[in-house]
């Protein structure tokens, strides 16, 4: 399946590809400090082309199995963000989690909100999912605002939910019903 959607005059959202490894490694290296407070600790290999190729290969195999779907925000030849549907559950649940990031030079331009809206449409129309879920650190006001603007509703609080930047962190939980 080929999915692509403009998010701004210069940035578009498209499905991830294995040949994104080099520009993705560059993007993560460029944003290492920007993303560090919000991400798990990353080994040095994560920031290499080989490491990203390995991760992309696994994520695309996961997508082929119907268990996830990674996308990239692209401007020219650069990757300036990412968003993915993770942990897709079928059966009576028909749900997935969503996670996203935007390059430090592109924050504040509405790209995260546009990407979340586009991926929610994709989840509803293409994957026929019923529900999306997301979590945000309580102190991550920007991410929480993106979720609220994108139609997500706060529904809970999870203590010690994920290991972020080397420590177990609480998260505010959000959901959006798609149909």
UniProtKB/TrEMBL annotation:
GO function term, MF aspect, one: protein-N-terminal-alanine acetyltransferase activity
E.C. numbers: 2.3.1.267
Stretches assigned to the N-acetyltransferase domain: 11-179
Catalytic class of the enzyme: transferase
UniProtKB keywords: Acyltransferase, Transferase
Keyword Lipoprotein in annotation: no
Record-linked Gene3D superfamilies: 3.40.630.30
Domain of life: Bacteria
Record's GO cellular component terms: cytoplasm
Family recorded in the similarity comment: Belongs to the acetyltransferase family. RimJ subfamily.
Protein's UniProt name: GCN5 family N-acetyltransferase
Organism: Frigoribacterium faeni
């Amino acid at each position: 399946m080929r999915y692509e959607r403009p998010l701004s005059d210069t940035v578009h959202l498209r499905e991830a590809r294995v040949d994104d490894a080099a520009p993705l490694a560059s993007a993560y290296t460029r944003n290492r400090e920007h993303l560090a407070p919000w991400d798990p600790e990353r080994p040095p290999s994560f920031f290499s082309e080989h490491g990203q190729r390995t991760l992309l290969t696994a994520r695309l195999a996961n997508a082929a199995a119907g268990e996830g779907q990674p996308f990239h925000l692209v401007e020219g030849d650069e990757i300036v963000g990412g968003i993915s549907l993770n942990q897709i559950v079928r059966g009576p649940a028909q749900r997935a989690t969503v996670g996203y990031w935007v390059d430090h030079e592109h924050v504040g331009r509405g790209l995260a909100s546009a990407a979340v809206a586009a991926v929610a449409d994709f989840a509803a129309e293409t994957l026929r999912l019923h529900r999306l879920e997301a979590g945000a650190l309580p102190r991550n006001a920007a991410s929480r605002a993106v979720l609220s603007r994108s139609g997500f509703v706060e529904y809970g609080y999870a203590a010690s939910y994920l290991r972020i930047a080397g420590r177990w962190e609480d998260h505010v939980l959000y959901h959006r019903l798609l149909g």
